[in-house]
Write a structure and sequence with these properties.
The structure holds 2 protein chains of 2 kinds.
Chain A (H helix, E strand, L loop, with lengths): L1 E6 L1 E3 L21 E3 L1 H17 L3 E8 L3 H11 L3 E6 L7 H12 L6 E5 L10 H9 L3 E11 L2 E8 L2 E8 L2 E5 L11 H7 L4 E5 L7 E7 L8 E5 L4 H10 L5
Chain B lengths: L2 E5 L2 E2 L2 E2 L1 H17 L3 E7 L4 H4 L9 E6 L8 H14 L2 E7 L2 H14 L3 E5 L1 E5 L2 E8 L4 E7 L4 E5 L14 E4 L8 E8 L12 E5 L9 H11 L2 E4 L1 H5 L20 E5 L5 H7 L4 E6 L6 H4 L2 E4 L2 H17 L1
Parallel strand pairs in B: 1-4, 1-6, 4-5, 5-12, 6-11, 7-11, 14-15, 14-16, 16-17, 17-18
Antiparallel strand pairs in B: 2-3, 8-9, 9-10
Helix pairs in contact in B: 3-4, 5-9
The chains are: A alpha/beta, B alpha/beta.
Chain lengths: 250, 323
């Protein structure tokens, strides 16, 4: 199986966001960057599929700045065979521009599967995966929590409001991974050492024109300070009264 | 002058609540742009009945793409049909709801139309001849304003954010061809437990965390959620521990929710959790630690043993709602 996994470098989810001097991006000083958590499910799935197939290649592709090499290195430490960095000083807010650059890289690659995380936890975009699939003309299932592959065909399950959608498709296909698909492995020391010797190819991202501009980024409005109604079960009566008469939600 | 295409969503032939929100959001945007609202309904035979209500919800024209293959969400066919309709008219924006289907559909449509995409937006505007949108990022830790530098933008709007409105007039209805494509096929939709509410759609969410000490104690959360008529949510810690399914997780790697009432039980309030529920209208926190960060966000807090507080609250809420 030849599998591409598209990954993104994002601030850790425990990061406290500060707005940068330009008023349109975050202040990155002191921010710890990690691989997008949903992309870890994609990497793990790729590795398991390759292991099950008894051979093949897993390639981790990231679009981003030089520092995204570390993100790729993390995927290599988990077990990916090689990496590709599509270099861009900044990841544009235009998901279609990103998808174009990825599609240009993936085109004619002979992939059986192209995997993504279901969304990026920084800009909360979930468009790049399905857009890349459209540009490549490949079948696509998003937010996959369960996957079966058998003889060039696949069945995926995705969560929808009040149930699970069961989707059939043929390979090659583009899938985006949701939490629950698998449990990502921690890189072992051996993997981390091996990753240092694995190749990362670096080339400029063919981004083209970006047509989505972030005009401002701001912190959300503060909530009005609340109050402690009381302590222990004796406070329940007062809480219910407040929910009824003041908050009017009961 | 540009019009707005509102893509609606039905299940089993009935329009979903988010469809009225999308149509009204489209109405406001179209009014700002000096254009009209076309609402598109995709579904199986007889779905035009669902479309009949959309004029009153704010649409000038209702377009119906009816085909047996469209009874369920059909990712490629829906995308091809929306794109064909969008290309045939003079639209400045295509709007859909950021539901499970809408999140899947909007990027496909944008790629087919070569149009920029804005997802899960909480506000739309038209300024300086361009469509703009407001959307939370970093799971709600920040809010960004986007400007689309193109004649057409594809936008998905967050459910429960735009209030539905009423235009007080019927729209005209017409049929449009269903474009059938199927690289992938939705074989079935396995329904969740009967009557189970989705945490992202419910107007009341009761979430439990580590403070419950074990999965068996989530019965307390389920009972309280039932008393409120709401859905059960969970913190990342308890989902990672395998106590609850990921579908219930609220926070940066789970769902972002905006219910009328959010009750956090035994949740201390990690920053990634707070990001996912801070837009709730009213927040109640129950925690034994008076210094827990959740109390800084909560409108009402009770400090104490949840095992004593929750059963009493369940009883009182049930009484209040019955009476």
């Amino acid at each position: 199986m030849k599998i591409a996994v598209c990954i993104k470098r994002v601030p850790d989810t425990e990061t406290r966001i500060r707005i940068g001097g330009d008023g349109a991006s975050i202040d990155e000083s002191g921010v710890k960057f990690v691989v997008n958590p949903y992309d870890e499910f994609a990497i793990e799935e790729a590795l398991q599929r390759k292991e099950k197939a008894g051979g093949g290649e897993v390639v981790a592709i990231a679009l981003g700045p030089d520092a995204a090499q570390e993100t790729i290195r993390g995927a290599l430490a988990m077990g990916a065979d090689r990496g590709v960095l599509l270099k861009a000083d900044k990841v544009p807010a235009d998901a279609l521009a990103v998808a174009r650059a990825l599609a240009a890289e993936l085109k004619d690659g002979g992939w059986d599967l192209v995997l993504f995380g279901k969304l990026a936890v920084d800009d909360y975009n979930h468009g790049v995966g399905p857009m890349t699939a459209e540009l490549l003309g490949l079948p696509c299932v998003t937010a996959v929590v369960k996957l079966e592959l058998e003889g060039g065909r696949g069945v995926a399950e995705r969560e929808v409001e009040g149930g699970m959608e069961v989707v059939e498709f043929a390979l090659p296909a583009v899938l985006t991974a949701d939490k629950g698909l698998n449990t990502p492995r921690y890189p072992a020391l051996k993997g981390i050492m091996a990753a240092k010797k694995k190749p990362i190819e670096i080339k400029p991202a063919a981004l083209g024109e970006a047509r989505v501009a972030v005009t401002t980024l701001a912190l959300p409005a503060d909530r009005k300070a609340g109050r402690i109604v009381g302590e222990g079960p004796d406070a329940v009566g007062e809480l219910v009264r407040l929910l009824r008469t003041e908050a009017k939600v009961l | 002058m540009a019009n707005v295409l509102a893509v609606t969503e039905q299940r089993d032939g009935a329009l979903r609540k988010s469809s009225r929100e999308v149509v009204w959001a489209a109405r406001q945007l179209a009014d700002a742009m000096g254009g009209a609202v076309d609402a598109l309904v995709l579904g199986g035979p007889g779905v035009d009945a669902a479309g009949a209500k959309l004029g009153e919800a704010g649409a000038d024209r209702v377009l119906v793409a009816e085909d047996a293959a469209f009874a369920r969400y059909a990712p490629d066919g829906y995308a091809a049909t929306v794109a064909a309709v969008a290309k045939a008219g003079s639209y400045g924006a295509v709007l859909a709801a950021a539901t499970a289907a809408g999140k899947d559909l909007a990027p496909r449509v944008a790629a087919r139309l070569d149009a920029p995409l804005g997802t899960d937006v909480t506000g739309v505007a038209f300024a300086g001849g361009k469509v703009a949108a407001t959307r939370p990022v970093y799971a709600g830790k920040a809010v960004q304003q986007l400007r689309f530098d193109a004649p057409l933008a594809v936008i998905s709007v967050r459910p429960n954010t735009f209030a539905p409105g009423s235009a007080g007039k019927p729209g005209t209805a017409s049929k449009v061809p269903a474009v059938l494509e199927s690289r992938v096929t939705v074989r079935e939709v396995k329904a969740a437990e009967q009557g189970k509410l989705d945490v992202a759609e419910a107007s009341v969410v009761v979430s439990g965390g580590r403070g419950l000490r074990g999965p068996e104690h989530f019965a307390l959360i389920e009972s309280l959620a039932k008393a409120f008529g709401g859905a059960v949510g969970a913190s990342r810690a308890v989902v990672d521990a395998g106590w609850r399914p990921h579908a219930e997780q609220v926070g940066q790697t789970g769902k972002t929710v905006s219910p009328q009432l959010y009750v956090a039980v035994g949740i201390s309030g990690a920053i990634q959790h707070l990001a996912g529920m801070r837009t709730a209208k009213v927040i109640v926190a129950i925690n034994k630690d008076k210094d827990a960060p959740i109390f800084q966000l909560a409108d009402y807090g009770i400090v104490g043993d949840l095992f004593e507080i929750v059963p009493k609250l369940t009883e009182e809420v049930a009484k209040a709602r019955a009476g």
